Amino acid sequence: MMLLRVKRIRFLCKAVNWLLKHWDVHFCAIFIHEMHLQTYN
């Protein structure tokens, strides 16, 4: 039971870490996408 919880926490930590590393890339992509939508409309 505990092992499963530890694995889940470890997975969550990896996910959060990945999001923090790639956050700026995603933000830029979303920002550029929004700008494109505004230019075309």
What is the overall shape?
rod-shaped
Structural class: mainly alpha
What's the helical proportion of residues? over 70%
Main sheet characteristics: none
Count helical runs. 1
Strand composition percent: under 5%
List low-confidence stretches.
Answer: none
Count the E strands: 0
Distance between the termini: 54 Å
List SSEs in N-to-C order: H
Mean of all residue-level pLDDT scores: 84
* CA radius of gyration: 17 Å
Can you offer a commentary on this structure?
The protein is mainly alpha-helical. 95% of the residues lie in helices and 0% in strands. It has 1 helix and no strands. It is rod-shaped, with a radius of gyration of 17 Å. The mean pLDDT is 84.
